[in-house]
């Protein structure tokens, strides 16, 4: 996010910072330097305390929020968040003076705060407080007004003037009175917090006695903490008496622990002041807290070892001087514990342990007389306690469980009529979606999740309408009688970030004691959380809700598109500090197959109450309407199609798309309800009820979507912003509302399905686009950025049928040139066009305002963006060739790619030191006399700059293999048979390890153990502490590769076998006959070993058993494998310049990193969120694994595996792509629109495809020994041809009367058309890799030796053969036209990227003169791409 704030007087957004603003910005930049991070935070705190006045507070706040990262030093994050609050308050004062913050800026600030998920450490409460305050404070910034009262703003300004004033006596009393009035009046809690934060010296003990929202009390305690530090001699006994009263766990509200935890911090902060009186008072209260506190979150502060050290001496002194008093206090508490029914046996044991730890931590012995109850007494007391609790609360744990189960049953009964449930199929890897052999019944997998004690979180992903909600209800049905199921719809929960379980259970009329009973009895729970995507959540709700404190399994459902942009999405669900592979599981719901569709139809016919139809009518509708068979694989779309079957049959349609299905369904819905409301309509004089229905639904849905709501709460007793839609006293409104497809559940209202809301939002948008063109700017389309993938998809469908809409969208874009108020609308318009694959080549976009637009994967060659406002625009993977960006504003744009390190020499390999701050690189220079000189260079991975004087020639031979020592003092490299060690700071030679007799092929390090393997058949284990040999393995063949882990050593042998030894005993554990070809690399991942080979496979091995767990056929030779620290990500580098990132959990390729132009030398993880790679192309590239765009990336249908062939039809209308994923995809060549996916049975790659000369049919040839021919008018199969072996190439004759194909068995077959009977079958001497019909009497074949053979078509005999040049051009089928109205032809390599949706960023010949806001890294990237 960049700086997106502006003043109403049109002050430029890129300002030149002066004074304190400049000091602040410079310090914020210094936060990037970890060496001075703590010092910088201290300087920022001091700057805030010294009468801070900022001229551009919004820009400064923007920069600061962008710098915040939740790191290990979380106490400093708390300080930075506190500073952010103070700056935000100054934004308020500027806002009052006509200062404006845009909607997108608010959204982006809130998004940044969402990513700061507090860890479970001693600072998480403080951080949560500041984040809550910042969120509430940012939400108070509304366009045109500020939701902070004038009274509070005036007080804040007066308070700041008071702090800066020298004469404080005259204004003190008035200011103090005003402050107390605000705290006691009916102001919002955030206004009270703002007031507290705006002053320092107005503290009074009476303020502590004010009760209310916990944030206010917390802010007051913060104020007290500062006041004590600044005025220790002014603190009286009354303050400590009040703290003592507040410190005891008497309050029952759920956030009371937060206040007590803060009091502990306040008291602990007293001891460093060295004030004897204050320390004694603080010690007394802390001892009472230590004895009485039962909340583990507060105990975490009281028992923290580092914090104990700060107060240890003063506490010991106090106890020594007041030993008898302390002993009596403890023993009195002990007697209470053992003589009342408040504590069970376990809690009493914990009490004894608590006292023991208390004495141990302070190194004291009080000789306490602690007594323990015997077992019988405890049992009796426990029974008595249960009876008392039951009398008090009315519920024990069994009654609570029954209450929840009854609630679930009632919910299911309300929804029962809507279910025509058909068991769903799932896959663990989305790339298996089209492979029916990998489909699994979801019920069996759910059972495994439920009974597996290690698995804690299950993520179920699927498309909109895939059946996620129905599956949730089915899980409740199945397990409600045997398990405690808690069901949560996120869109209906206010505080889902922290109070998820509490809010749900409160809705069931369970009180806090009931909820605590579930938690303290450790009752097993299955928590189902539906609609993670519907609230646009990117938080780890497991961690923020502290679900690790419950005996809980969690099932999340989410649209897969919501997470598609976030490669490390599993981190949003897995528990903190857990073994993700053990605790996290995920399923992908696959579309219905034919059997499931038929079963659903049968269920529908049997159970439906609407107009009946027959199976015959159903089959007729499906077969007659083109495209419908693909759409109804989605369960929800199938359900609404079944309801409109009569209309479909009568419409005589030949084709249909998604939008048209929804139009027919909604029309039928409105017509039905209009007929039922005839009398009411007449009484209320409503002319066109259907029109009113649509208007009402469109406006409601648009408002809900703009506010990120899929359900809204409205209580008739409280008017709010939804009153215009849900006022029960408005009869006309009630009549209209009854005809809308809404669900009403208590006080909550939602559309019957999220896609219905998205459909109506799109209809409203179309209406508002026409209003915008007519210069009516007052509409939602111009006020919020469209993020919702579902809404964008409906716009895409609308563009297919509405020829006028595209022109209107372009008009909106052009109108922003002269009117900045059109900025958001223009951004939405260009995002919609891009999502719909509308090509925008050669467009005049000069001066347009499109802040926040999503232009990822857009084709924008030759566009003029000069003087445009492109703030926050996403250009990831866009084609920007010859674009003009002169004088444009490019704040916080994203190219989705980082600049690289370019070396003048060849790069061999790289290594990161253990601090991740130094990148070592071996480079070599080839001289004219064939000599090589090796260099060691050190780079900063953040700045990508060479560290000063650290590129040094260190050897006359080529160095290989590189790693850092554990202490980062040495860099180890191999040179021939030696290991050379260099000083990591000076690069001077330090020492060498010599023992091998031949070249070292592999070297790996683990802590102080170095392992080397050589061509001398020996593996040596070195102890680096004393530089001695620990062990030798003498083998019978060369060592190809080495791997080492905490427990094991492994080696790949030249005979293609793998051996595994114990690192401790050096005993052989396994000897695996692994691959069919040379093994190139090995890598451990916990209890699994992964090997790569020149047989183009990756194999995952069980270390103990040697079992093959999984084989991945890569289609390329992998040379390097690395794993992330958590073991979930795997990255590979190949000799085909490709880097692939895998999710090890499901073996799925997450992304292919395209950028290198030569063999990959090495790939390494930088932490777990970025990758660094080196190549023989002389570059080191940097890749972001967790790039998350502010808008949803365009979801282009694509293949899931390697593309083998791309062809274009003769009439330039169609493009087809064949892939290893067993499918052929068909595209519109003019617009790039996806048309159809042909699935070729056999579960083997489709190797080739070709169009007939008349462009009417498409032939597909597969490795599964078959050719299938499809009609493009209906997508139906026309012909099936069984072949002798895998089909390598196919071709039609120009006249269309012959068809030829070649096979893996070296045969060439020529068929006659239209019968497809064999005319000739010819056995060749080698593979035919390409066929081309020549004259009417011959066919030309090109074999694997680049030899051209001519065949006589009259007799099938060879005419002549001759050799061809290796680089002979391919036929025209290797080019694809991919522009809109422009003749732009793409070479085959580009066409593959085009159809796969994996565009590579193209910045060639772009002009950036005078462009503002580009970062240094982006400037470097542009320079490198010229």
CATH fold title of the largest domain: Rossmann fold
Assigned CATH architecture of the largest domain: 3-Layer(aba) Sandwich
Beta-strand proportion: 15-25%
What is the number of beta strands? 60
Distance between the termini: 26 Å
Instruction: Specify the helix fraction band.
Output: 25-40%
Q: Please report the first level of CATH classification, the CATH class of the largest domain.
A: Alpha Beta
Query: How many distinct domains?
Result: 9
Question: Mean pLDDT across all residues, rounded?
Answer: 81
Largest sheet report? 7 strands, mixed
- In the CATH hierarchy, what is the superfamily of the largest domain? P-loop containing nucleotide triphosphate hydrolases
Task: Provide the structure class.
Answer: alpha+beta
Assembly annotation:
single chain
Number of helices in the DSSP assignment: 43
Shape: globular
**Radius of gyration over alpha carbons?**
35 Å
Spatial order of the strands forming the largest sheet: 6-5-11-7-10-9-8
Can you tell me the residue ranges where pLDDT is under 50 for at least 5 consecutive residues?
1-13, 371-381, 387-394, 1188-1195, 1363-1389
Walk me through what this model shows:
The structure is a single chain. This protein is of the alpha+beta class. The protein folds into nine domains: 1-147; 203-321; 323-393, no CATH class; 397-590, Rossmann fold (3-Layer(aba) Sandwich), CATH 3.40.50.300; 594-656, no CATH class; 775-898; 902-994, Thrombin, subunit H (Beta Barrel); 997-1113, YVTN repeat-like/Quinoprotein amine dehydrogenase (Methylamine Dehydrogenase, Chain H), CATH 2.130.10.10; and more. It contains 43 helices and 60 strands. The strands form 16 sheets. It has a seven-stranded mixed sheet with strand order 6-5-11-7-10-9-8, with helices on both faces. Strands 15-42-41-40 form a four-stranded antiparallel sheet, with no helix packed on it. A four-stranded antiparallel sheet has the order 16-17-18-19, with no helix packed on it. A hairpin with a 2-residue loop joins strand 13 (742-745) and strand 14 (748-751). Helix 35 crosses helix 38 (754-773) and helix 38 crosses helix 39. The longest helix has 23 residues, at 74-96. The radius of gyration is 35 Å and the shape is globular. Mean pLDDT is 81; it is low at 1-13, 371-381, 387-394, 1188-1195 and 1363-1389. WD repeats lie at residues 993-1032, 1072-1111, 1153-1193, 1196-1237. This is WD40 repeat protein.
């Amino acid at each position: 996010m960049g700086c997106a704030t502006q003043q109403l007087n049109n002050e430029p957004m890129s300002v030149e910072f002066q004074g304190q603003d400049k000091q602040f910005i410079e310090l914020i930049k210094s936060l990037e330097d970890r060496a001075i991070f703590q010092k910088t935070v201290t300087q920022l705190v001091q700057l805030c305390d010294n009468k801070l006045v900022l001229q551009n507070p919004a820009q400064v706040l923007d920069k600061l929020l962008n710098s915040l990262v939740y790191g290990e030093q979380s106490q400093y994050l708390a300080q930075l968040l506190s500073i952010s609050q103070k700056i935000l308050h100054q934004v308020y004062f500027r806002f009052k003076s006509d200062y404006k913050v845009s909607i997108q800026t608010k959204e982006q600030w809130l998004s940044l705060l969402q990513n700061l998920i507090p860890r479970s450490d001693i600072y998480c409460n403080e951080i949560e407080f500041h984040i809550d305050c910042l969120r509430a404070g940012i939400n108070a910034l509304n366009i045109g007004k500020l939701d902070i009262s004038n009274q509070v703003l005036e007080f804040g300004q007066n308070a700041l003037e008071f702090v800066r004033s020298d004469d404080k006596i005259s204004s003190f009393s008035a200011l103090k009175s005003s402050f107390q009035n605000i705290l006691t009046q009916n102001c919002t809690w955030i206004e009270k917090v703002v007031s507290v934060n705006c002053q320092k010296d107005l503290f009074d003990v009476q303020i502590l006695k004010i009760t209310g929202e916990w944030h206010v009390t917390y802010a007051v305690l913060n104020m007290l903490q500062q006041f004590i530090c600044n005025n220790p001699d002014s603190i009286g006994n009354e303050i400590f008496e009040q703290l003592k009263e507040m410190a005891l766990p008497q309050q029952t509200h759920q956030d009371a622990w937060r206040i007590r935890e803060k009091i502990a911090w306040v008291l602990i902060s007293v001891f460093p002041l060295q004030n004897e009186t204050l320390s004694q008072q603080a010690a007394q209260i802390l001892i009472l807290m230590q004895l009485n506190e039962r909340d583990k979150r507060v105990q975490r502060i009281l028992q923290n070892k580092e914090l104990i050290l700060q107060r240890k001496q003063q506490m010991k002194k106090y106890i020594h001087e007041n030993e008898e008093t302390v002993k009596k206090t403890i023993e009195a508490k002990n007697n209470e514990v053992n003589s009342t029914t408040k504590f069970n046996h376990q809690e009493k044991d914990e009490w004894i342990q608590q006292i023991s730890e208390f004495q141990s931590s302070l190194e004291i012995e009080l000789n306490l007389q602690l007594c323990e109850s015997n077992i019988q007494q405890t049992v009796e007391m426990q029974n008595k306690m249960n009876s008392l609790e039951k009398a008090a609360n009315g519920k024990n744990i069994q009654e609570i469980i029954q209450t929840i189960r009854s609630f679930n049953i009632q919910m299911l009964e309300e929804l029962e009529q809507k279910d025509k449930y058909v068991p769903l199929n799932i896959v663990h890897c989305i790339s298996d979606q089209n492979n029916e052999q990998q489909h699994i019944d979801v019920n069996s997998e759910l059972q495994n999740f439920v009974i597996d004690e290690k698995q804690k979180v299950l993520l179920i992903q699927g498309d909109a309408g895939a059946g996620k909600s129905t599956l949730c209800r089915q899980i409740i049905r199945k397990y409600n009688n045997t398990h405690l199921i808690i069901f949560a719809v996120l869109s209906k929960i206010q505080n889902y970030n922290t109070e998820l379980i509490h809010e749900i259970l409160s809705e069931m009329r369970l009180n806090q004691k009931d909820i605590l009973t579930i938690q303290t009895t450790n009752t097993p729970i299955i928590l189902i959380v539906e609609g993670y995507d519907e609230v646009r959540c990117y938080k780890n709700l497991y961690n923020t809700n502290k679900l690790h404190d419950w005996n809980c399994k969690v099932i999340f459902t989410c649209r897969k598109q919501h997470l598609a942009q976030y490669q490390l999405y599993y981190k949003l669900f897995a528990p903190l500090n857990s073994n993700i592979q053990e605790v996290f599981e995920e399923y992908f719901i696959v579309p219905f197959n034919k059997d499931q569709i038929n079963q659903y139809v049968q269920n529908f016919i049997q159970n439906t109450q609407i107009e009946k139809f027959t199976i015959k009518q159903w089959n007729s509708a499906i077969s007659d309407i083109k495209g419908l068979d693909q759409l109804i694989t989605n369960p929800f779309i199938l359900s609404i199609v079944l309801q409109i079957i009569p209309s479909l049959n009568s419409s005589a349609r030949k084709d249909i798309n998604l939008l048209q299905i929804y139009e027919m369904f909604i029309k039928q819905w409105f017509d039905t309800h209009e007929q039922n409301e005839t009398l009411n309509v007449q009484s209320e004089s409503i002319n066109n009820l259907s029109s009113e229905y649509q208007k009402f639904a469109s406006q409601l849905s648009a408002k809900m979507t703009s506010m990120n709501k899929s359900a809204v709460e409205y209580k008739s007793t409280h008017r709010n912003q939804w009153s215009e839609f849900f006022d029960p006293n408005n009869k006309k409104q009630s009549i209209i509302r009854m005809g809308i497809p809404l669900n009403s559940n208590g006080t909550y209202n939602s559309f019957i399905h999220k896609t219905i809301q998205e459909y109506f939002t799109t209809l409203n948008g179309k209406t508002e686009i026409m209003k915008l063109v007519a210069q009516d700017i007052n509409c939602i389309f111009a006020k919020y950025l469209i993020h919702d993938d579902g809404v964008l998809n409906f716009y895409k469908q609308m563009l297919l049928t509405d020829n006028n809409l595209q022109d209107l969208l372009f008009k909106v874009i052009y109108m922003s040139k002269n009117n900045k108020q059109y900025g958001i609308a223009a951004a939405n318009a260009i995002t919609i066009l891009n999502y719909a694959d509308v090509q925008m080549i050669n467009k005049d976009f000069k001066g347009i305002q499109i802040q926040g637009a999503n232009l990822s994967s857009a084709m924008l060659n030759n566009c003029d963006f000069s003087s445009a406002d492109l703030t926050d625009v996403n250009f990831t993977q866009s084609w920007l060739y010859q674009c003009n960006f002169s004088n444009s504003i490019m704040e916080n744009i994203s190219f989705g790619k980082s600049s690289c390190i370019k070396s003048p020499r060849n790069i061999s390999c790289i290594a990161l030191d253990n601090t991740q701050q130094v990148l070592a690189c071996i480079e070599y220079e080839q001289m004219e006399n064939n000599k090589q000189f090796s260099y060691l260079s050190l780079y900063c991975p953040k700045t990508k700059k060479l560290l000063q004087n650290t590129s040094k020639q260190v050897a006359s031979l080529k160095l290989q293999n590189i790693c850092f020592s554990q202490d980062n003092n040495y860099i180890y490299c191999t040179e021939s048979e030696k290991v050379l060690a260099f000083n990591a700071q000076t690069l001077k030679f330090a020492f060498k390890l010599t023992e091998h007799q031949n070249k070292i092929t592999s070297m790996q390090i683990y802590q102080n153990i170095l392992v080397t393997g050589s061509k001398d058949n020996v593996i040596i284990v070195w102890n680096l502490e004393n530089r001695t040999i620990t062990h030798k393995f003498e083998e019978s063949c060369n060592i190809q590769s080495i791997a080492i882990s905490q427990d094991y050593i492994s080696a790949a042998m030249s005979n293609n076998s793998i051996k595994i030894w114990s690192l401790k005993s050096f005993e052989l554990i396994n000897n695996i006959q692994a691959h069919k070809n040379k093994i190139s690399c090995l890598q451990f991942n916990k209890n699994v070993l992964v090997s790569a080979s020149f047989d183009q496979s990756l194999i995952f091995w069980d270390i103990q058993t040697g079992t093959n767990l999984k084989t991945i056929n890569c289609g390329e030779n992998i040379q390097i494998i690395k794993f992330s620290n958590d073991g979930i990500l795997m990255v590979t580098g190949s000799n085909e310049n490709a880097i692939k990132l895998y999710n090890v959990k499901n073996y799925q390729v997450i992304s292919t990193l395209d950028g290198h132009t030569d063999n990959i030398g090495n790939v390494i993880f930088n932490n777990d969120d970025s990758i660094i790679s080196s190549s023989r192309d002389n570059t080191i590239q940097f890749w972001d694994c967790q790039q998350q765009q502010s808008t949803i990336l365009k979801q282009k249908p694509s293949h899931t595996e390697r593309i083998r062939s791309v062809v274009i039809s003769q009439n330039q209308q169609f493009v087809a792509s064949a892939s290893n994923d067993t499918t052929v995809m068909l595209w519109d060549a003019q617009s790039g629109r996806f048309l159809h996916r042909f699935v070729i049975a056999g579960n083997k790659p489709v190797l080739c495809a070709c169009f007939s000369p008349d462009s009417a049919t498409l032939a597909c040839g597969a490795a599964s020994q078959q050719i299938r021919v499809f009609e493009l008018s209906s997508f139906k199969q026309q012909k099936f041809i069984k072949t002798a072996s895998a089909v390598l190439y196919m071709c039609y004759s120009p006249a269309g009367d012959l068809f030829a194909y070649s096979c893996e068995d070296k045969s060439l077959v020529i068929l006659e058309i239209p019968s497809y009977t064999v005319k000739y079958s010819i056995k060749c001497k080698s593979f035919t890799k390409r066929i081309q019909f020549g004259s009417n009497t011959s066919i030309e074949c090109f074999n694997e030796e680049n030899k051209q053979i001519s065949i006589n078509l009259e007799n099938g005999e060879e005419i002549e053969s001759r050799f061809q040049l290796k680089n002979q051009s391919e036929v025209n089928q290797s080019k694809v036209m991919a522009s809109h109205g422009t003749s732009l032809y793409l070479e085959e390599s580009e066409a593959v990227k085009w159809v796969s949706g994996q565009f590579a960023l193209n910045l060639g010949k772009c002009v950036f003169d005078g462009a503002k806001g580009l970062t240094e890294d982006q400037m470097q990237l542009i320079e490198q791409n010229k």
